[in-house]
Amino acid sequence: MATATGTVRAAAPASTRPEATARPESRVYTVEVAGRQRLSPNFVRLTFAGEGLRSFGAGGVDQRIKLMLPKPGRTVADVPDGHDWYPTWQAMPEEIRPTMRTYTVRSFRPERAEMDIDFVLHGSGEEASGPASAWANGARIGDRVAILGPDRPGSGRMWGCEWCPPATARRLLLAGDETAIPAVAAILESLPADSRGIACLEVPSEADVQAWDHVPSGVEIRWLPRDIAGSEHGELLEQALETALGELCAGPKVDGCPAASEAIAALEDVDVDNYLLWEIPGSQHQDPAFDESLDIAGGELYGWLAGEAGVIKRLRRMTVQGYGVPRGSVAFMGYWRQGRC
C-alpha cells in the first residue's frame, strides 16, 4: 500500500495471510546518502538513494536490513557481493572488513529508489558509542554505503519481518526502547483504523517524543522519557509494561491472558550474553540447547517487544510467568546488548 507521496506502508500481516515460501537471495544495494533530517536530540533520519533500490525486496512494516559501512579511508567497493558474501566478509582482514549493523526500514519509496532509516545517536562526535552511531553522526550527503537485503518482494521472517498478529487479535501490546522506535512507528502507521492497544516506548529524553501519522485512535502511546525521571535504561519500560499488562489482562478472562496455571508454559532461561534472545511464535529457538517450535497462540492479545536483551529477558518473564500470556502470543526480540557496540 502506498500513500499519496509514494511511501510504501505495508499492511500489517495476519496469520491468514500466507507467507512467501521461496527464500529470497541476499543482495547488495549500493546507495548514497541523499538526505539528512535531525528528528530530535537522539534521532536522525538518513535517506538513501540508488537505482538498484527499485528492485529491493520489501517485506513488511518491521523489516530489518543489514547496513554495510566501509572502514575509515576505505570505500564501498570493499563490500562483498554474491552467494558467498558472508564467508567472504568474515575472511576479510579486520582493518578493511566493512562494519555490518542491523537496522529497520522506516519507509521505502521504490518509484524514487529511496529508503529512509532512522538512527539512534548514542552520544556525539568522539563520544559516540558504536561505529554505526558515530558514522550516522557525521554522515554527509553523497557518502556511499551498502544495504544488504532481499532481492525480491515477499512477506514473513525470511524478509526480516516479525510483526504478524493472528486474525483473532483484538488487543495489541507493543513495548520497546529507542532502538525499537522506527519499527514501532512503521507498525502503528500500518494498523487498521479500528485497532486497539497500548504501546510503551522508552526514549532518552522528552525531546525525543515523536508524532506519527495515521495511528489509530484506539491505540494509546505511552512515552517514557528517562531524563524526566532520572531512570536507568529499562526501568520505566518495565514499570509501564506491568501496568499495561494489568489493564489488558484485567477483568473477565480474556483469551490470551489465561489465569489458569497450566496455561503458563515452562520458561527456559536465556543466556543473553552468549545467545540471541529472539523468540518468535512459529520459529525455533536460537539457542541450540532448545529444540522447540512455538505455535502461534491465536488469542485476542498479541504482543511485540523489542530492545536491550537484558531488559527484554525480564519483560519476557513478567509477561509469561507473571501474567500468564502464552509464549505463542508475543514476539520477544533482543535488538542489542548493553556494553556491546
TrEMBL record:
SUPFAM superfamilies reported in the protein's UniProt record: Riboflavin synthase domain-like
InterPro entries per record: FAD-bd_FR_type, FNR_nucleotide-bd, Riboflavin_synthase-like_b-brl, SIP_FAD-bd, SIP_fam, SIP_rossman_dom
PROSITE patterns: FAD_FR
Ranges for domain FAD-binding FR-type: 26-157
GO MF terms, alphabetically ordered: oxidoreductase activity
One Pfam family in the UniProt entry: FAD_binding_9
Region annotation Disordered: where it falls in the sequence: 1-24
Protein name according to UniProt: NADPH-dependent ferric siderophore reductase, contains FAD-binding and SIP domains
Species the sequence originates in: Actinopolyspora mzabensis
Upper taxonomic lineage: Bacteria, Bacillati, Actinomycetota, Actinomycetes, Actinopolysporales
